[in-house]
Amino acid sequence: MVIIDSMSRASVTAIALVLVVPTAYTQSNFDIQRAGMVEEIIRAVEQTSSYTGKLQLDNHVVEAMRTVPRHEFVPIELREISSYLNRPLPIGNGQTISQPYIVALMSDLANISPDSIVLEIGTGSGYQAAVLAKLAKHVYTIEIIEPLGLYASETLDRLKYTNVSVKIGDGYLGWPEYAPFDAIIVTAAPEQIPEPLIQQLKLGGRLVIPVGPKDQAQSLQVLEKTSSGEIQRTDVLPVRFVPFTRK
Predict the structure, then answer these.
(1) Domains of the chain
(2) Does the annotation count 107 as an active-site position?
């Protein structure tokens, strides 16, 4: 499902990005590469010392990373050689598909269960939403750049991720119609945490978000709303994300 906010309707000339061209690579090639990527991520996370100590991925997150075909969310010209490298990749419009390590880590920090309703801000190519869809009951994801949102929606539909809803709009405002959310993940860095997202977080829920100015130090943070409504904030580790943009 795609919902397009009237305030964010823009030219879709860049939608040529969505054209799917047959590739010489076989599915088994990609499966082997993906398995290697996941093993690299597991080692990288185990070797990471965050501000709170060592990190370790939940088995459900590992399985989601092993299952989601990242190559389907990567631009055609990068697909064969770069899909399963553990690094971010350009997807057009000045945006990137996040490093798989970061996708896995943020998914893990969100503490998602099979009954969770999750909000993602910054759909991008749709890859993070696909990983979340393997963990949650339903994922609502918002993208402010219309061509990217349409591309992601088409890809997710084609791959039969039926528990993902895509909206073109201003992620700062969240998606109040479906709040409160068990978890919220933000894939771009604001300088200040948007207050509407905190308000739309369920009691006991987690908001995982990078915070900090563009081209300066940023921190990946987890905000947990306690049963009394208080916000507990934890800095996890330094990161570098594209800036959070608004209409």
Answers:
(1) 2-11+88-239 (3.40.50.150)
(2) no
Cα 23-29-31 angle, rounded to 5 deg: 115
pTM of the model: 0.89
> Is the backbone peptide bond immediately before 210 cis, with ω within 30 degrees of 0?
no
- Active-site option among 6, 8, 50, 98: 98
- 247 residues of the chain, pLDDT tens digit each: 677 654 443 333 343 344 344 445 677 899 999 999 999 999 999 888 788 787 889 999 999 999 999 999 999 999 999 999 999 999 999 899 999 999 999 999 999 999 999 999 999 999 999 999 999 999 999 999 999 999 999 999 999 999 999 999 999 999 999 999 999 999 999 999 999 999 999 999 999 999 999 888 899 999 999 999 999 999 999 999 989 988 7
Q: In the chain, how long is the greatest CA-to-CA distance?
A: 55
